[in-house]
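job 3f2a | input accepted
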Amino acid sequence: MPETVFVNAINEALHEEMQRDESVFIMGEDIKRSIYGATMGLLEEFGEKRVLDTPLSENAFFGAAVGAAAVGMRPVVETLTSFMWVAMDQRVSQAAKMRYMFGGQVNLPVVYRATMYYGGGSAAHHSDRSYPMFMNMPGLKIVAPSNPADMKGLMKTAIRDNDVVIMFEDGTLFGNRGEVPANEDLPNGELLIPFGVANTLREGTDVTVVAIAGSVPHAMAAADELEADGISVEVIDPRTLVPLDKASILTSVEKTGRLVIADPAHKVCSAASEIASIVAEEGFWSLQAPIAKVASEQVHIPYSPALEKLVYPTKEKIAAAVKRTLE
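job 3f2a | predicted structure (327 res):
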C-alpha cells in the first residue's frame, strides 16, 4: 500500500468528500492559504463559495456552521483546540443540544476539526488537548485518530454523519507516515472506518495498553522495548472516544488481567479516567493488578522545552507503568 503523511490524509478525505457531495464545504481562518497544510488545493478545485475564510471570531463561524447544517449543508470547520473556548456557547448550548431539543426534526452534520498543537513550545494558551471536556457533553461524537489511514477513514465517516463530530487531530502526528489503502484496492472503492470500533494494533497476553491519539506511537515503542524483557503487551487504539468500543477493551483486559492507559490529556477527569472507570465497574474480576494511568501532568503547559517534555506520556513512562502492574 502507498504511504501517506498524516496531514495529507486529512487533505485526501476533504477532497474526496467535497467531490462526492456538493453540500460539503469548509470554513475557518486562513484556510485558503492552507497555513497548516490540510486544505491545500481545495480553493483551486472548489472555489470561494465552498472554501471560506472567516473572521477571527470562532463564536460567529461556529454558530454559522450550525445554521448551515440545520438547512441541509455539511460544513467542516477548521480550528485549533485552544481557540474553541470562545465558541463554547455555540458548540455546547446549540450544536450539542439542538437535535435533541427539536425532537429530532433537524440534523446537524457539522465536523469541527480541532487541531492539537502541543509539544513544540506553544505554551499554555496554544497547547490544549481538550477532548475529555467534550466527552462529558451529550450530543457530540469525539474522534481522535493516531495514524494516516484512520485519519482519512474516520474523517470521511464524520463528514457523512448526521450528528456533530469533533475531530481531534493530534499535531504531533502531522508529519508521521503510514500506509493508506488506495480506493481502487478497497472492496467498496473508498476508505470508510465506522465509529465505535477500536483497533488492536498489537496482540499480547500480559498487559493491555489503551493508547489515545499521540500516545499511540509511544505505546508501540514501549511494547517493542518490553518484548525484549519477555513482557507481552497488547496495544489498543480506541480511535473514537464517543462512541467508545468498551467491548474490545474489556475483552482484552479479560485476557491479560492488567490495564495501562496512555492519554495526552491532563490526568484529572481524562479519557483515561473514564476508561479506567468502565473497566473497574464492568471488568473488575478480570483485573490482577491496579489500573495504571499515564497521562499529562495536572499543570499548564510550560513554554520551556525542557519542562514541557516532562508533562506528557512517553515511552519510558508507559513502560514503567506496565512493569508496575506486573510487580
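job 3f2a | The first strand starts at residue 3 and ends at 5.
job 3f2a | closed
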